Amino acid sequence: MRTMLAITLVAGGCTIGWKEYVTDGLLPNGDEPVTVFSEPAHAHGVLLSVSGLDVTVWDGGEKIADWFSLYPLPPFIPLPNHSWDEPGQVHVWLTFRPHRGGWSLSPGRSSLRVGRAPEMPASIWRGRYREGARLEFPKQSAEETMALDGPTDIVMEFAASSPLMETAELQLDGVVLEGHAVRFPAIGLRPRYRMSYDSIP
Amino acid sequence: MTPFREGLPLLACLAASSGCVRTYFDADLRPQRIAQPAALRENAPAFEYELLVATAADRPLPHEDGSSLADRAQIELDDLLKAHGVRPIRHEPGTSGPYVHLTLIRGPRRTMLWAERRTGDASSARRSYDGPSDPVRPELDALLGKMLIDFVPPAPAR
Q1: B68, B105, B110: residue with CB nearest A99
Q2: Between B55, B69, B94, which is nearest A33 by CB?
Q3: Which listed residue, A114, A136, A142, B34, has the most CB atoms within 10 A of its CB?
Q4: Cβ–Cβ of A49/B68 closer than 8 Å?
């Protein structure tokens, strides 16, 4: 049925529209990291760098609604989307690039604050080394510590409903160099929506 | 060779000359002309610091030399600090003694420098300085000058 519908729409021509949600990272002073004349499709990322370690904080974005219609009508018929039924939680993607040995990370020590709500620690995290060796994730022990032996991607999940309704504040903690904690400033995560349209053919 | 491939070098040159190809903060910080660093006086005050850089992550990081962005920025900061008459010392984690933690925030419109005096895990004096983002090196030099007035006592006169 869905295939027939798709073939009919493609053969006869249709218009489609979709709404995306992205979370822009803000610099520690609240400034936007880049100047743009038109909002980009992807979210803004923030780089935090200390001697021997680069950390990138970013959000990949999420499509939250789709519409279609027969050409040349504007798209107004909604397409079911799994995000309607599954309220999401806030995900933050982090990339760690160590340039010296001795770095370790306790993901459970990072926290998120949304508005005036109390800080919430990361509830679940998962990730992989970039070279392809998978880490055994997800883990949920707040005290769990992993060595950052190479470039590592981590996704942290916080028990706050997504899409965010206001700017949240991410406090990256638990980054340790040879037993000494490294303090990072908090960075803002600001929600943004983006509408896009297209037509087939 | 296809016309597209033949045109690639030309496109790259045009993009570079028009400023479309952006560089990271450390590259922007490097001086346009290599000048001989000013000689430090014997009694130049020491300035022990550690640096954290925050900026946009809107393009891939360079891989070339296995150093972090902060490591590369520190090379330029050391030069600027020496020009201000202080002897920069990079703080190593775990060492005791007071030092200044610098947070350098490079945004598209302004550069901010947060300075915080720390001893171990305790922090005391905090100051914030900001100025325009461009031109990068002179503006950062001006911020460092203001910060040093607050955080480094003047050297005793001979």
Answers
A1: B68
A2: B55
A3: A114
A4: yes
ipTM reported for the complex, 2 dp: 0.81
Please report, in tens digits, the pLDDT of each residue of chain A (201 residues total). Answer: 667 767 776 677 888 888 888 888 999 999 988 866 555 656 688 999 999 999 999 876 677 788 888 888 888 888 777 666 666 788 899 999 999 999 999 988 999 999 888 899 988 888 766 555 555 555 556 678 888 888 888 888 888 888 888 899 999 999 999 989 999 999 999 988 888 888 877
Closest alpha carbon within chain A to B106: A33
3-state secondary structure of A18: strand
Residue of B nearest to A45 (CA): B57
Domains of chain A: 23-61+85-191 (2.60.40)
A32 vs B108: CB contact, 8 Å cut-off?
Answer: yes
DSSP letters spanning chain B: --HHHHHHHHHHHHHHHHT-S---HHHHHS-SS--PPPPPPTTPPEEEEEEEEEEE--SPPP-TTS--HHHHHHHHHHHHHHHTT-EEEEPPTT--SEEEEEEEEE-SSEEEEEEEEEETTEEEEEEEEEEESSSHHHHHHHHHHHHHHHHSPPPPP-
* Tokens (6 digits) for A152: 């590592």
Interstrand relation of B98-106 and B46-56 (parallel, antiparallel or unpaired): parallel
Domain range annotation of chain B: 23-151
- Asked if B94 has any chain A CB less than 8 Å from its own CB, the reply is yes
What is d(CA B117, CA B152) in angstroms, rounded to the nearest whole number?
11
pTM of the complete model:
0.82
